[in-house]
Fold this protein.
Amino acid sequence: MTDRLYFLKLGGSLITEKSKPRTARENTIQALAKRIKVSLDRNPGLKLLIGHGSGSFGHASAARHGTRDGVHTPAEWQGFLEVWRDARALNQIVMDALSDNGLPVLSLPPSASVQAEDGVILNYPLENITTSLANGLIPVIYGDVTFDLQRGATILSTEELFIHLARVLHPEKILLAGRESGVWADFPVYSQLVSIITPTSLVEIEPKLRGSLAVDVTGGMYQKVVSMLELVKAEEGLEVLIFSGEDVGALEAALDGEEAGTLLCNQPLDQPHGHD
């Protein structure tokens, strides 16, 4: 079987209680790990790179210290360390759950290798990731602090890391598992789930998305859709799925190559896609 490469993100809102600082949803993380293991056993030709958000671990300290905007003063560097510790603490919980379920995972913290300039990735050595994938390991990355030539330091999200890596590693799919079932056209009413978004259809539904998704607790769903569609346009054949990781059936379906939640693709809507 030909090897396929998927990127899987476990969202911060999925694996932590966002309203409770430094609180992991450990039962959820264990359930996700178990389903990932089942899916990989069923799909031996699938290679996986896993990323995860920081949720209530990194976001609170990052907001308190303004780390994303730059790190210059002694107090800000102490804040940088606090965010680093928080992100690392959650990563250890995730790694323990994945390892406990028999997954050959290796944590590769971006803070140890990525260099940014004004919030944009400038240098990201990939040898450790590619060697891990080539030898049956599962590299795990996460939203993390990084050094920055202009800002001193900053924070890079998992999506930003995925977008950079996708342009080099060319995954077949990027799977974004959160708590929502997908992209809602009428958030927070939750009655109109958008099944497919293409660069063309975004123009038509953008006003609804702007109005509804701007109030998302992360402030990032609209930007996530836009940035991932840009990537889909640049990477031929790439598909991005936004779906609920609360539904282990949806996670298994996504890892099995099926569609779940909202599909971001470059295919015009007037062409059949098989999405119910």
